Amino acid sequence: MESNEWPSEPTERIRAVVERVLDQLELQGSVEIEEDDQVITATVEGDDDYGLLIGRRGQTIDALQLICFQAAFQGVRDRKRVVLDAAGYREKREAVITERAERAAEKAISTGDEVELDPMPARERRVVHEYLKERTEVETYSAGDDPQRRVVVAPLLAG
């Protein structure tokens, strides 16, 4: 692809952005794209250490995901969610978040006190809310303002 050509398809725009960033970071990897009715998922696959691409607490990959969304749907009305992953980061991070949510729920139930989790982005807060929504002994809500917004796990006292 010549540097002045810009793909017309959202999926190819995402691929172009991610490949350009990989080149600039001097990382090797292929960009695999999956698309359904609601989401386009771009996954970087390869043997390099993608820590630089992922960043501290996923801040870099989250920022790149936002850029991919903006680039993919520039001038397009019909939009979908865009998810960018590398080295299985999203799945590993979700496992860490659900484990923290579980510990917070157990603590809230045993102490009768609210438990505040560390600040996290909206996507991660949603994971906590979804994970704990079936637990009848606790409720969850978000408190504070971004970037310090956090999930609070509150015990529901049996009455």
Brief summary of the model shown:
The protein is of the alpha+beta class. The chain has helices spanning 10-24, 51-54, 59-72, 89-111, 122-132; strands at residues 30-35, 39-45, 81-86, 115-116, 138-143, 150-155.
Question: How does this model look, in words?
Answer:
With 159 residues, the chain is of the alpha+beta class. It has two domains: 10-87, GMP Synthetase, Chain A, domain 3; 92-155, Ribosomal Protein S8, Chain: A, domain 1 (2-Layer Sandwich), CATH 3.30.1370. 42% of the residues lie in helices and 21% in strands. It has five helices and six strands; from the N terminus they run αββααβαβαββ. The strands form two sheets. A three-stranded mixed beta sheet has the order 1-2-3. The protein has a three-stranded antiparallel beta sheet with strand order 4-6-5. The longest helix is centred in the middle third of the chain and has 23 residues, at 89-111.
Task: Write a concise keyword list for the protein shown above.
three-stranded antiparallel β-sheet, single chain, 42% helix, 159 residues, alpha+beta, 6 strands
Could you name the CATH topology of the largest domain?
GMP Synthetase, Chain A, domain 3
What global shape is seen?
elongated
CATH superfamily of the largest domain: K homology (KH) domain
Strand content bin: 15-25%
Q: Classify the helix fraction into a percent range.
A: 40-55%
What distance separates the N and C termini?
65 Å
Biggest sheet character: 3 strands, mixed
Structural class: alpha+beta
Average predicted confidence as pLDDT: 92
Total tally of structural domains: 2
Question: What is the tally of beta strands?
Answer: 6
Record the strand order, biggest sheet: 1-2-3
Continuous helix count: 5
- CATH class division of the largest domain: Alpha Beta
User: What Rg do the Cα atoms give?
Assistant: 19 Å
N-to-C series of helices and strands? HEEHHEHEHEE
The unreliable regions are none
CATH architecture group name of the largest domain = 2-Layer Sandwich
